[in-house]
Amino acid sequence: xxxxxxxxxxxxxxxxxxxxxxxxxxxxxxxxxxxxxxxxxxxxxxxxxxxxxxxxxxxxxxxxxxxxxxxxxxxxxxxxxxxxxxxxxxxxxxxxxxxxxxxxxxxxxxxxxxxxxxxxxxxxxxxxxxxxxxxxxxx
Length: 139
Known about the structure:
Layout (H helix, E strand, L loop, with lengths): L1 H27 L2 H6 L11 H63 L2 H24 L3
């Protein structure tokens, strides 16, 4: 999709450059010399200043509308993406919490006496270490 947009704008820019070169050629040379140079773009009847003025005005209007459309699209898409991101993260968190709760319940059911004894022993060792550090003033 982006490729076609890029291709379109590059082509549009090339056309603008070609037309601009014709205007410069017409401005710098007289009508006969421009015709000899291969420029049959505008006849001598049209006032180039009026055409240029109208083109600039129209370009400014188009530019203003284009900027407005781009900003509006950007803000709407950003809002949509943020909303969807929050919904997805909430779903993921809820899913993880459910999995954790299920795992905790399963673990509580499956805990053996040996694991309980080991965990109690580790807690006692941590408690004893903490008391020793307090008495010695280590931490």
